[in-house]
Design a protein that fits this description.
Chain lengths: 553, 208
């Protein structure tokens, strides 16, 4: 029984069986839908339209005549008829080809030294929840031979950390996740990097990985269930080296694998790697490191002491949960400028037409919109101005509608649909930035410190490389510090894995670091909620914390 | 006493310090706290809740308004208690075992107080026994919140533990759906803070 799938102008037909869900059938045909909730029918990421045939939807059997348009979730729908037809909107497919940051600063990483034809090689890997980056290097010289990166294939099953934990209820499910990250993600990256460097994968004798605690556990095939619930305990934080063959890595079978140690269930090896790569301890003095993401991690260092906390910012900065939000990949608006006439100038990744906006773009939009008075401190539009400038739109929501600003009109967009930002989108961004800033302020207040007195502020993680710092300050995401106090680290997690392979003392140093931080539970801290509510405004209810930001009444 | 426009507006705009000032002045001037509550404060929160349902205000403004309301309530609560003022009904609320995310729960608690309920706030990480104890103390409804898919399944344990009790279990939080509520036998589901108040009004037969 064939199933006909309409994907934009493309048409695909696949053999269908009655039992698996549409999401499973499509996955077998190589069409990976967005199943960020783990196929539980919650997130709506795999929404599609049933056009013809008999389907089992949410426990109800539906027979649809040709030309129907019945919306359903692919993860909750089975096809029953001899053949059927469905329409898959582009927005329900997992995007590929995003910007994955594999740049970082480390001694020798950019050296011009060459490598002998027989020298043993090593691979450093950053396992992100969303993306995985790998560099192939000569550990003796630090010379990088090749880089490769792609999406962490675990996103086929679940999008964020919490849903991956939910997915892994049994040992078999942990194995599925382990296979996805090693067999489907890291091994192809190893093959790609080795091919680019013209070497055999068997020459890779060492591998080092860094990632958050859940990613490291799944890489090692360890259960993660206990990390998802209070008291968020991991199986272990310091991992003994193991042999490549035991993990199924496609490199020298007896090769050794190191995993950067973690601190707590929600403060992982990626943060330990960040701390090490940014010399937070060794440079002494006082500094702050922030890794902005779905979970923002914040570290405060002062005279050999480390404090760390994590705050749930949500996925808005990754473009998720916004009407026209998307990951930072070609077609995404990454920067926005505007004059007082609301003539928006957008930079689009890849240089083509836009079909959505990513995290750095939405930060710019809010900051420039606030500066020119289009958006007020509560994140609401000046509707009259929008209408006067011809950028007003109304965007339907589940109940009622939301005011929206047209950033790219339909005629100029990539898909013939206007790219808009709604007030509901702004709300999501305000919650994300407030969680990050409130976490920072709460952690520093506990130490009797003021955010504005921090002499050195390190921004880690891929996202921070693309944001406009001044706009992030105007929004109230970052504290109002002179720009020269900020340092952009790049992919510190990958840098830590790289250092573990090139510097004999690095792993030991990171093990030392992993024992130091005092982990602060923000939700148990009285001030956090107050700081969060203050930070929901642009830039903040306490405007005195942002003296450089001009406030309109 | 008619509606105190100044107080009503200060709550809607989330001006916490102004709310405290107005309430303190009114109390010092001998105003009836029951009237302050019923004619100005509760209508202000109901007004915000209605606007929220219509997407005219969003969570940030709701949180700021609720915080201002809380500051006002804190001043009049002891006076209300000593005056023997009767709340609409008594309910309890908490985040479920394993879940520490309480900002959403706090907003619902504030909205319920703002609507005239007595709220027994059990805090975070509450097991079934804690909810049961609150029911034994007189809670007529149990509101459970979970933000994570990893902690949500505990809601089933709670509905099962309270099956024989007369208290109504209402659940909510980001991953929770009406379908899930039906599946585990919860009496109600609140899609958002204002919806939670309406569901409680309905389940307890209270007219808003």
């Amino acid at each position: 029984m064939p199933l006909h799938i309409q994907l934009g102008s493309r048409r695909v037909s696949i053999a269908a069986e009655a039992h698996p869900t549409l999401a499973q059938l499509l996955e077998r045909a190589g069409l990976h839908l967005n199943l960020r909730c783990g196929g539980e029918g919650i997130c709506g990421g795999c929404r599609l339209q049933l056009a013809e045939g008999t389907f089992h939807v949410d426990g109800v059997t539906l027979t649809l005549p040709a030309g129907s348009r019945h919306e359903a979730f692919a993860c909750q729908t089975r096809v029953l008829s001899a053949d059927g037809e469905i329409i898959v909107p582009a927005g329900s497919l997992l995007e590929t080809g995003g910007q994955i940051v594999s740049e970082f600063h480390a001694p020798n990483a950019n050296s011009a030294q060459t490598t002998s034809a027989t020298a043993p090689l090593a691979a450093a890997v950053d396992i992100g929840t969303t993306t995985v980056a790998l560099v192939l290097l000569d550990p003796a010289t630090g010379h990088i031979l090749a880089r490769a990166s792609q999406y962490n294939q675990q996103i086929r099953k679940a999008d964020d950390v919490a849903s991956r934990i939910s997915f892994c209820r049994t040992e078999a499910e942990v194995r599925v996740m382990q296979e996805l990250v090693i067999g489907q993600t890291i091994n192809p990256l190893l093959a790609e990097a080795c091919a680019a460097a013209g070497v055999q994968t068997g020459r890779v004798e060492r591998l080092a990985v860094a990632g958050n605690t859940v990613m490291e556990h799944l890489f090692l095939g360890l259960p993660v269930e206990s990390i998802g619930r209070l008291p968020f305990n991991a199986v272990r934080h310091i991992h003994p080296p193991c042999e490549a063959a035991t993990l199924g890595l496609a490199m020298r079978p007896r090769g050794s694998v190191d995993v950067v140690p973690s601190v707590a269930g929600y403060i992982g090896g990626d943060i330990v790697a960040d701390i090490h790569a940014a010399h937070l301890l060794s440079r002494g003095g006082e500094s702050v490191l922030v890794d902005v993401g779905t979970n923002s991690e914040i570290v405060y260092a002062q005279g050999g002491r480390l404090l760390a906390c994590a705050t749930a910012a949500g996925p808005a900065f990754e473009g998720a949960g916004l009407l026209h939000g998307r990951r930072a990949s070609p077609g995404a608006i990454e920067h926005v400028r505007c004059d007082t006439k609301l003539d928006f100038q957008c930079d689009v990744i890849g240089g083509g037409k836009a079909d959505g906006i990513c995290g750095s773009g939405i930060i710019d939009f809010l900051a420039v919109g606030f500066r020119c008075g289009l958006i007020n401190a509560h994140g609401r539009f000046d509707i009259e101005r929008l209408q006067h400038a011809g950028c007003y739109a109304q965007s339907p929501l589940a109940r009622g509608s939301s005011h929206a600003c047209v950033l790219v009109p339909a005629a100029a967009s990539a898909n013939g649909q206007a790219v808009v930002v709604t007030e509901r989108d702004i709300e999501q961004v305000l919650k994300a930035k407030a969680a990050t800033y409130a976490g920072l302020k709460t952690l520093l207040t506990l130490q009797g410190r003021n955010v504005r007195d921090i002499p050195r502020f390190v921004l880690a993680g891929g996202f921070a490389r693309h944001i406009d710092l001044a706009n992030a300050i105007t929004l109230g995401l970052l504290p109002d510090l002179p720009l020269e106090r900020f340092e952009v680290l790049g992919n510190g997690s990958l840098a830590g894995a790289y250092l573990a392979l090139t510097d004999a003392a690095a792993l030991l140093a990171m093990e030392h670091i992993s024992r130091l931080p005092q982990a602060i539970e923000l939700n148990r801290t009285q001030d956090f909620e107050d700081n969060f509510i203050d930070a929901l405004l642009i830039p903040n209810l306490n405007t005195e914390e942002f003296p450089s930001v001009e406030i309109h009444s | 006493m008619a509606k105190n426009e100044e107080l009503f507006n200060a709550i809607c705009k989330g001006q916490r310090k102004l709310v405290e000032e107005i309430v303190n002045q009114a109390v010092a001037g001998g105003a009836s706290v029951v009237e302050l509550l019923n004619d100005s404060m509760i209508p202000a929160m109901r007004n915000m809740g209605d606007k929220f349902s219509k997407n005219e205000v969003y969570v940030p403004e709701m949180l700021i308004a609720a915080r201002a309301m809380a500051a006002g309530l804190k001043i009049i609560e002891p006076i209300l208690v000593s005056a023997g003022h009767k709340p609409l009904a008594k309910v309890c609320i908490g985040t479920v075992k394993g879940d520490l995310h309480d900002i959403g729960k706090n907003l619902v608690a504030m909205m319920l107080k703002g609507a005239g309920y007595e709220v027994d706030d059990l805090g975070v990480d509450c097991d079934a026994a804690k909810f049961q104890a609150a029911v034994d103390r007189g809670a007529q409804a149990v509101l459970c919140s979970a933000l994570l898919t990893t902690t949500m399944p505990y809601m089933k344990t709670i509905t099962e533990a309270l099956r024989t009790s007369t208290a109504k279990v209402v659940i909510g939080g980001a991953p929770v759906t009406q379908q899930y509520a039906t599946e585990i036998g919860a009496a109600g589901y609140g899609a958002d803070a204002n919806d939670a108040v309406k569901v409680i009004d309905q389940l307890l037969g209270v007219r808003a």
